Amino acid sequence: MTFSSRLWRLGASCAVAALMAGCASTGSTPQQPLTTQDLASGQTTLDASDPAMAVQVSKMFRKDKRFDDALAVLLRSSVINPESGEIYAEMGKVLIERGAPKEGLPFLSKAAAMGVDDWSLYSAAGVAYDELDQHGKAQENYQMALLHKPDEPSVLSNLGLSYAMTGDLDRAEAMLRKANANPSAGEVVRLNLALIVGLQGKFDEAQQIAQADLPPAFAAKNIEQLRAMLTQPDRWQDMRAVQKASSVTTQGAGDVPSETP
User: Fold this and answer.
1) What residue ranges do the domains of the chain occupy?
2) 32 partner at 20 to 30 Å CA-CA among 10, 71, 196, 203?
3) Pick the CATH number of 3-247 from 3.30.70.100, 3.40.630.30, 1.25.40.10, 2.60.120.10
4) Is this prediction's pTM over 0.90?
5) How many CB atoms lie within 10 A of CB 8?
């Protein structure tokens, strides 16, 4: 069975955005954390023969939205490490976050065929399918991601947003409440829940969710963001943008409101 068929049957990856939450990283990482400043200063040189380092550097570039640099690092490493599924998994996530979900999915498929089989891969595929308006396949991929990592809040959040995109706000709210109840859920998950509650006309409750247990300045910022989202003429397009932003991020693809690992 090909990974692409497994994806649409079961589930996939992570996403990134201002009001959603995301995916996780795969593979091992170097013992000493790197920064893009290290590379720019020449203090550290990239060892293209080390796929784990290439993936780590790519994630740093992704965080800074430097997608061309991320792909350049990965392509160079893939020539030396053609057997590294983690390299192809990261390529897929970079392309999805860059706005090319159709191009990213084959790389996720290749990574899976090479033995990469973690929750962030399925979560990222889910984000890609939502971007392509194939929400049924997206939801199956998120479900597969949850089989690998039950109750992962970033995946639950993305699944809830996917339900919302099909107009099923009741299921969307249920998923986001479950995600928000997880102690490891971040602020993006909370805002996603507030958004879905607000879309149902329950703005007072949405405000309470958005500002709960926060200092006044942070609470006010959340309310401002919530109002902006709810008053946009095309709220579904906003939700897609939010999901994309949270879907392809770092770990692990799960630190963002709708994420890509």
Assistant:
1) 3-247
2) 71
3) 1.25.40.10
4) no
5) 18
